[in-house]
Write a structure and sequence with these properties.
Layout (H helix, E strand, L loop, with lengths): L1 E8 L2 E6 L2 E7 L4 H11 L4 E5 H5 L6 H9 L5 E4 L5 H10 L3 E4 L2 H4 L1 H11 L4 E10 L2 E6 L4 E6 H8 L6 E6 L11 H10 L4 E5 L5 H10 L3 E4 L1 H4 L5 H11 L4
Parallel strand pairs: 1-4, 1-12, 4-5, 5-6, 6-7, 7-10, 10-11, 11-12
Antiparallel strand pairs: 1-2, 2-3, 7-8, 8-9
Helix pairs in contact: 9-11
Length: 248
């Protein structure tokens, strides 16, 4: 499915370029009206990211998310600085459908493994953000500010026995660039991990990109900047996704 995405800094919808906080574009949009359009169009999930909390959990933008969740019936998945059970519980009580766990899945693997038992496989999405180096999918954490030596494959294999089902994979070099997605990356990981539902993120600029990603085997596509900058409409994106399935 197509998942519209909104990232927030200080209550403002923004897009970063390749995860760089100093290279951000701000958007003045009416979220309430936009979500009404999405609901009528048949959007099934919206993706929200707290970029302030990703940097520092003390700066969590809880009020903005309370307001957003209260103004739509569309299921919400949310990420950014979710590092404890308390964090998860806060968002689940607000009505969030899924929480996106990033840095903690790397820094506190044993703890996160327990969360799959507590909350279930359908509540937790692992966000694995990668930089491709010498064909290795190396994971970056803490708002992409810190590089690790761990690969995407190592982390998926670690969590798979615990019930891992949903993985949001971003090619950082593509994120916010409108330069086209890394379809090779998604074809590789979908082929290797057949039971994981992958969400592709980064680089989507055209309807053709949506078709290519659908045919790579991913279950969903995160679409941010291209929708905000009207490269295509949500209706066009949804129709393209449906039609692409005929040729998958």
């Amino acid at each position: 499915m197509i998942i519209p995405a909104f990232d927030f800094i200080n209550g403002q919808p923004v897009r970063l370029y390749q995860g760089n906080y100093s290279n951000q574009t701000k958007y003045n949009i009416n979220l309430y009206k936009l979500f009404q359009i999405y609901e009528k169009s048949g959007v099934q999930t919206i993706h929200l990211v707290d970029l302030d909390a990703a940097k520092n959990v003390k700066n969590r933008q809880l009020n903005i998310f309370k307001n957003i969740i209260s103004c739509t019936n569309i299921p919400i998945q949310i990420g950014g600085g979710i590092r404890t059970e308390d964090d998860i519980n806060i968002f689940l009580k607000l009505g969030v459908k899924r929480v996106v766990i990033g840095s903690s899945a790397i820094k506190n693997k044993k703890e996160v493994k327990k969360w799959f038992k507590i909350y279930g496989s359908n509540t937790i999405i692992l966000a694995l953000d990668v930089v491709i180096k010498d064909n290795k999918k190396e994971i970056a954490i803490h708002g992409w500010q810190d590089q690790t030596n761990l690969t995407l494959e190592e982390i998926v294999e670690y969590f798979e026995p615990a019930g891992l089902k949903h993985v949001l994979c971003t090619d950082i070099c593509k994120d916010g660039t409108l330069s086209g997605p890394n379809t090779i990356l998604y074809k590789e990981i979908v082929k290797k991990f057949k039971y994981i539902k992958f969400q592709a993120s980064g680089g989507v600029a055209t309807l053709k990109d949506i078709s290519c990603l659908k045919n790579s085997g991913v279950s969903s596509i995160i679409v941010g900047r291209s929708l905000l900058e009207k490269k295509f409409t949500i209706q066009e994106a949804l129709k393209c996704w449906q039609n692409a399935s005929l040729h998958a």
